[in-house]
C-alpha cells in the first residue's frame, strides 16, 4: 500500500484523489481559435501603423515654427561631453523630437476638432482653461496688500521729492556725469506672496466666442519705483506719462465669473496715486469703457484691436497737448479670417478657431511722408522700411502688422516740425499706438521694456527726447514684465549712445 493506504492496483475514485481531466468541448476550441485569430489580426493591423508612424516621424520634414502658439519650436541640442553626461543632451533630443513633429499644427487642429466633436457645448457655456482662483477685491481701506505696496514705494517717492528741487531742475548733464537714483529691490520676491496667477476662459457672447485672460492683480511696485526714479533723474522739462491699458476681461467677463478677475481700473488708479506728481496719468481704462460696444478688443487674440488703441492714443494726445487727427482721416485696411493667440492660450479651443474675426488697422494720411528706421536692441541701424508690414500668415499674425514684432528699436520720422520727440516704452500692446501719432510728434522712438539693452536715462538725454510715454497692459505693469523696468535705469549706465543711421541706405 502507498502512503494514503490505497491498495496497489485499486481504482482511485474522484472523491478519493485528483479529479479526472475533462475533454475540451467544441466551444472551448472555438473560443481559443477566435482569441488566437484576434491576436494575429491585431498584430497585422498595428504593425503597419507602427511602420507608418516611424516613417512619418523620421522621413517627413520636422516643424520649426508653431503658428498656433506663436513661437519657434525646440532646436536639436548641441552635443558636448558635459551635457551628454549631465543628461541635458538626451533630454534635449527628447524635447526636440516631441516638440517638432511633422505637420504639428495640423495634428493639433485635428485633435482639437476631434475632442470638440465628442464634447457638448451650449450657447451660454464657459470653457475654463488652467487654474483660475477667486481674486480679493480692492477696497478704499488699506488692506495688507496695499499697505505693503505703499511701504515699498515710499522710499522711492521720498527720494524723488528730495531731488525734485535740485537734480530735476538742473540742466541736462552728459551721460558720463549723470548720477542716478535707482531703487534696488527684489520685486519678484516681494510680490510673490500676493500676486495671483490666473487662467483663461472662453465665453460665448452675442453669437461669437471670446477668449479672456483673468487678471490676478499685483503690487505694481517695480513700475511705480522705476517711473518715480526716472522722474528724479530727468530734467523737469521732459514730460513723463503713464498709460496702463486693461485686459479685455475688465469689460467682457460674465457676471458669474466676476470674482475670478480683479477690478483693473481700481488697481490702475491705486498705482497712479503712488506716482510722482510730475508724472501725468493717461486714463485709458475710462476711455475704453465708453466704447465697449465697438470692436476695441480682439476675441481670438490677447491684444486689443487697433480701434481700441486709437481711442487711447487720442486721450494721450489730449494730455500731452499735441495735434491729433480724427479717425476719418485714416485709411482702413482689413485682414479677414484672423485667429490669434487665444486659440493656443485656450488649449486649442476649436470654438475660437472656427470663429475668426476681421482685424482692421488704420494708416495715417501722412504715412507716405514718414520714414521708419529699424535698429537692433543695441541701437545699431539695420534698415529703413515699412511701418505696416505682413509677417508670415496674415490670418494668424495680423497683430504683427505693426512694424513686425518687439525685439528691435524702431524710429518713426514724420513730417511734423514741432520739436517734440516721443519715446514709447511698451510691451506688445503698445505696438498699436505710434501709427496714430504721426501728426503729433516730429520723431517717435519705440522700445520694448523686455529687450531694450541701453540705459534709458542716457538714451532719453542723448536723443533729445521731450516726451516719455509708458504704454502697456495691466499684466505688464503689475506682472513679470514690470521687473524688467528697474534694469532699464541701471544697465549700460554712462555709455555714449550713437545713432549710426546711414542716410545713404
What do these coordinates show?
By secondary structure, the protein is α/β, with parallel strands linked by helices. The protein has two domains: 49-119, no CATH class; 126-490, no CATH class. 33% of the residues lie in helices and 16% in strands. It contains 16 helices and 15 strands. An eight-stranded mixed β-sheet has the order 7-6-15-13-14-12-10-11. The chain has a three-stranded antiparallel β-sheet with strand order 3-4-5. β10 (371-375) and β11 form a beta hairpin. The protein is globular and about 100 Å long. The N and C termini lie far apart (116 Å). The model is unreliable at 115-124 and 139-178 (pLDDT under 50).
How would you concisely characterize the structure shown here?
The chain is α/β, with parallel strands linked by helices. The protein contains 16 helices and 15 strands.
List the helices and strands and how they pair.
Blueprint: H1 26-59, E1 65-66, E2 71-72, H2 81-85, H3 88-99, H4 104-118, E3 126-129, H5 144-164, H6 187-191, E4 200-205, E5 208-213, H7 221-232, E6 239-245, H8 249-252, H9 264-273, E7 279-281, H10 284-289, H11 306-320, E8 331-338, H12 342-345, H13 350-353, E9 357-363, E10 371-375, E11 381-385, E12 409-413, E13 421-426, E14 443-448, H14 456-462, E15 467-473, H15 474-478, H16 485-490
Parallel strand pairs: 6-7, 6-15, 13-14, 13-15
Antiparallel strand pairs: 1-2, 3-4, 4-5, 8-9, 10-11, 10-12, 12-14
Helix pairs in contact: 5-7
Amino acid at each position: 500500500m502507498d502512503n494514503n493506504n490505497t491498495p496497489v492496483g485499486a481504482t482511485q475514485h474522484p472523491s478519493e484523489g485528483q479529479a479526472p481531466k475533462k475533454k475540451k468541448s467544441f466551444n472551448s476550441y472555438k473560443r481559443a481559435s477566435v482569441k488566437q485569430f484576434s491576436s494575429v489580426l491585431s498584430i497585422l493591423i498595428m504593425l503597419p501603423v507602427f511602420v507608418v508612424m516611424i516613417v512619418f516621424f523620421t522621413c517627413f520634414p520636422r516643424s520649426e515654427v508653431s503658428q498656433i502658439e506663436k513661437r519657434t519650436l525646440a532646436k536639436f541640442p548641441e552635443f558636448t561631453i558635459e551635457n551628454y553626461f549631465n543628461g541635458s543632451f538626451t533630454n534635449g533630443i527628447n524635447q526636440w523630437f516631441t516638440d517638432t513633429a511633422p505637420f504639428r499644427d495640423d495634428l493639433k487642429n485635428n485633435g482639437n476638432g476631434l475632442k470638440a466633436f465628442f464634447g457638448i457645448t451650449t450657447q451660454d457655456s464657459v470653457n475654463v482653461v488652467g487654474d483660475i482662483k477667486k481674486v480679493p477685491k480692492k477696497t478704499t481701506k488699506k488692506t495688507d496688500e496695499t499697505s505693503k505696496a505703499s511701504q515699498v514705494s515710499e522710499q522711492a517717492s521720498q527720494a524723488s521729492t528730495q531731488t525734485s528741487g535740485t537734480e530735476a531742475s538742473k540742466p541736462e548733464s552728459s551721460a558720463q556725469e549723470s548720477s542716478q537714483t535707482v531703487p534696488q529691490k527684489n520685486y519678484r520676491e516681494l510680490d510673490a506672496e500676493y500676486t495671483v496667477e490666473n487662467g483663461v476662459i472662453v465665453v460665448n457672447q452675442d453669437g461669437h466666442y471670446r477668449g479672456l485672460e483673468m487678471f490676478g492683480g499685483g503690487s505694481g511696485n517695480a513700475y511705480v519705483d522705476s517711473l518715480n526714479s526716472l522722474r528724479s533723474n530727468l530734467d523737469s522739462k521732459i514730460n513723463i506719462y503713464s498709460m496702463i491699458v486693461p485686459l479685455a476681461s475688465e469689460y467682457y467677463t460674465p457676471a458669474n465669473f466676476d470674482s475670478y478677475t480683479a477690478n483693473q481700473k481700481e488697481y490702475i488708479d491705486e498705482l497712479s496715486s503712488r506716482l510722482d506728481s510730475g508724472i501725468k496719468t493717461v486714463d485709458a481704462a475710462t476711455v475704453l469703457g465708453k466704447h465697449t460696444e465697438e470692436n476695441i478688443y480682439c476675441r481670438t487674440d490677447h491684444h486689443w484691436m487697433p480701434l481700441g488703441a486709437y481711442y487711447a492714443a487720442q486721450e494721450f494726445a489730449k494730455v500731452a497737448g499735441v495735434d491729433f487727427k480724427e479717425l476719418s482721416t485714416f485709411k482702413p485696411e482689413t485682414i479677414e479670417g484672423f485667429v490669434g493667440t487665444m486659440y493656443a492660450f485656450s488649449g486649442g479651443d476649436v470654438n475660437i478657431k472656427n470663429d475668426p474675426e476681421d482685424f482692421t488697422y488704420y494708416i495715417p494720411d501722412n504715412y507716405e511722408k514718414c520714414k521708419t528706421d529699424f535698429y537692433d536692441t543695441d541701437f545699431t541701424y539695420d534698415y529703413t522700411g515699412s511701418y505696416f508690414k505682413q509677417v508670415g500668415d496674415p490670418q494668424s499674425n495680423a497683430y504683427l502688422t505693426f512694424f513686425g514684432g518687439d525685439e528691435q528699436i524702431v524710429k518713426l520720422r514724420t513730417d511734423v516740425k514741432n520739436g517734440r520727440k516721443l519715446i514709447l516704452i511698451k510691451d506688445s500692446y503698445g505696438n498699436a499706438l505710434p501709427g496714430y501719432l504721426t501728426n503729433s510728434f516730429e520723431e517717435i522712438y519705440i522700445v520694448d521694456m523686455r529687450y531694450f539693452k541701453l540705459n534709458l536715462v542716457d538714451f532719453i538725454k542723448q536723443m533729445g527726447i521731450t516726451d516719455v510715454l509708458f504704454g502697456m497692459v495691466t499684466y505688464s505693469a503689475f506682472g513679470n514684465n514690470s521687473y524688467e523696468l528697474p534694469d532699464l535705469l541701471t544697465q549700460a549706465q554712462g555709455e555714449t549712445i550713437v545713432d549710426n543711421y546711414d542716410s545713404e541706405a
